[in-house]
Amino acid sequence: MKEKKKKLDLDIAIIGGGFAGVYCGKALLKRLSKGSRTRIGLIADENYMVFQPMLPEVASASLSPRHVVNPIRHLCRGLEVYKASVEKIDIKNKQLTIRPGAFSPPILIRFKHLVFALGAKVDLSRVPGMPEHAFLMQNVGDAMKLRATVLARFEEANLVMDAERRRRLLTFVVVGGGYSGVETAGQILDLFQGINKYYSNVSAKDFQVYLVHSREHLLPTLSTSLGEYAKNKLEARGLKILLQQRVKALTSSQVILQSGEIIESNTCVSTVGTAPHPLTLQLIKDTGVDSLHGRIKTTPTMQVPGYDWLWAAGDCAAVPMKLEKDEEEYCPSTAQFAMRQGALLGKNLNAFLRAEPVKPFTFKGLGELAAIGHHTAVAEIAGMRFSGFIAWWMWRTIYLAKLPGLDRKLRVLIDWTLDLFFPRDINLLSPRYTKTLQQVHLEAGNVLFNPGEPAFSFYIVKEGRIDITDSNGDLIKSVGSGEFFGERALLTDQIWRFKATASEESTLVGLGSEEFKTLLESSTSMRQLLENSARQYRSLSEIQALLHTLPKSVLQSTAGDLMTRNIKQIHNDESLLKVSETLSSERHSYYPVCDAQSGQHCGVLAREQFYDYLQDNALTTEGTIAAITLSKLPHIRAELEAGKCLETMTRTGSNKLIVLDESNQLKGILTIRDILSAQT
């Protein structure tokens, strides 16, 4: 049944529940006259706004996750808040299509003015293994998950006797040397120092934190001297900093750098990999407006050129920033700029509706601060530089003042005060997070996983090719576009037995192990299919053991010696009626099909496939066999030895092989029964 769309009419629609969207809504509400009938709606994926600068302290158990989020309805009283995902923006008709949830039909929103304040999205697909194994620091759920994971690593390491495994569990790698990366690494160091005494089998020599940064110094938006100060302080506390390095690939137990260095670790945190939101890219395409690296170029008043009803602010907008000597740059994607852009946009939009002058965005930034842990920070404010305890005190004071809501300020202040006198909360609260389908991009030569590593996903090759090899480098199977792999590990002990390497640029779709398990429990036929395909992934030693059960005389025979000849073939121009008669008189499961003109092999027709086609087409026998898509069976040459034939059957999951000559004409069919019959 087709879903009917409910319709809403708004004067102003704001998309995005971050700093820009929320502060725009607050500014509009503040300036609307009492009794105004202007309808303003804010659409956001969540019903709260996250104060992201404090997320690292949530990850280190210094702050409660509830205290760094604010309900948007509390912050913007009087605003119509819709928790929904935006599915489509109709520029021509000035309409939005939103969906409140999986159980509700889409809702159509008509608007007069649109404020586009969507943030950026995370894109880790360019680094193999990163989407599957990396932890993020984008929202409060990510911080909670990282906190639970770090504590779980300590609990596990406390019981592990193997020193190498314990070190791997307690080695943490943070990718990205910006504010989020530096603060996260510093907070993990603080967490260890605060809780280590409770774990008798965990020592300082087992614990390591790496920070991988692609540039020459940390905190690139600050001065080089402050970046060096932060580096020296963190290194003095034990942080291992790798500058001018990038992560090439990631597995469940290894972080592989472009230099070739491998860090043995089970926990990697990525604070890089942002990309434009897909809706932003679609809006740019639909409007034809200028963009900068996926950000919508606006005027200094945050209007989108050519559209007097379209406004943009925050991470999705490239807002001009006037510098000295009339130089022009664009505002950075930081909270302090998004907050002030949103506030000014609200004022400008209200002025525009009243036919009053609008003002350009002139804010140039007050400065930058970064806490590096252990009551230490670095800051650059109004051209002055600070470091150490005084900078840390400034960091806490300024961000506490910026935190929206008096109740949240008090809660955070209480958390910080209690943290001075009481130990950190080491309760391991581990909420379940569902991993849905995830897309992974691999370059040629990238390794997806190695033997012995835990298996977390079932993979489908969307594009490209993946070679599965054993420990000797022998090819087990080459998996191409449309094929899948990973089922054997997930069906057994969830350990990879082989190595998976991209032989060419490839894109994979990964299904998490829990979803894979649910799929198998829901479908017996799916389980049977995957159990059969899992048999294809046998090591060379397993195949050799199978071949040793056959006499040498059989193994030295060729496919031409053992195959069944004089097979009934169907021409590809035969009528369906004639094929039906053939199937009634010849009792085979597969029938080779050849080209009527050249005699070359075209494929095989399965009996069930033919009858399924008749059922789908009202049992009509009109037309020819060309209307049916043929199946493919593995094909070999008659000279191939029986042992190699058995190996081919195993690798392809087929008990039949088509034997062709050099001109691709059928010579016969070799079945597993033909090989077994040769023993007698």
UniProtKB/TrEMBL annotation:
EC number: 1.6.5.9
SMART domains named in the record: CBS (SM00116), cNMP (SM00100)
Domain Cyclic nucleotide-binding per the UniProt entry, residue ranges: 437-537
Domain CBS, first and last residues per copy: 563-621, 627-680
Stretch forming the signal peptide: none
UniProt entry keywords in alphabetical sequence: CBS domain, FAD, Flavoprotein, NAD, Oxidoreductase, Transit peptide
Protein name, entry field: NADH:ubiquinone reductase (non-electrogenic)
Catalytic reaction equation(s): a quinone + NADH + H(+) = a quinol + NAD(+)
